[in-house]
Amino acid sequence: MSAPAPAWVVAGPPGAGKSTVAGLLLAALEPTPALLDKDTMYGSFVAAVLASAGRPPGEREGPWYDEHVKIHEYAGMTATAREIRAYGCPVLLSGPFTGQIHDAQQWRSWVAELGGGTVRLVWVRSDEDTLRHRLSVRGLARDSAKMAEFKEFCQTMRVGTAPAAPHLTVDNRLTAAASLRDQVTAVIGQA
Questions:
Q1: 39-67 burial by CB neighbour count: b if 16+ within 10 A, else e?
Q2: How far apart are CA 113 and CA 108, in angstroms?
Q3: pTM to 2 decimal places
Q4: 7-11 β-sheet, strand order
Q5: Per-residue pLDDT averaged across 12-17, rounded?
Q6: Helices (H), strands (E): how many in the chain?
Q7: Which of 40, 91, 112, 187 has the greatest number of beta carbons closer than 10 A?
């Protein structure tokens, strides 16, 4: 069996700019990877699960969510990526992936579940001021719990803590010195 097609993982906290970075990567990579964005794939399904379970509509973190929802989101994304890659199409996964990126052993296990081979992690660096600003500006209902418990959210997301997994960094803080486009070009050159 041949090696699977490459995978790119764009990770970071909600509001960090993952979708923007993913879009820049997709525009620059040849061949263009298939995009698997967690919110696109599961957003409406998650809203329905939360409603049927009587959970707050903005709940997107925490023990209940992790056990009953997130585990299935990530398992579905992983299986889909593995299948697509096996047929020779590169994949770009976009989501927080906090547990996977901050634990080196968990990262290695996840890479194996993704089918092994080349899996590149692009970490979108952010900070509390940037996240508060971006979450406030985008004003999504799914961010309500994050904003209500902002300090706890930042701790859970390990905001500002670099991944334990091998990674390339794109700095998307409000104070970043270089443009995202220039940083993504550099990341592709380093890969």
A1: bebbeeebeebbeeeebeebbbbbeebee
A2: 9
A3: 0.93
A4: 34-37, 91-94, 7-11, 119-125, 168-171
A5: 94
A6: 10, 5
A7: 91
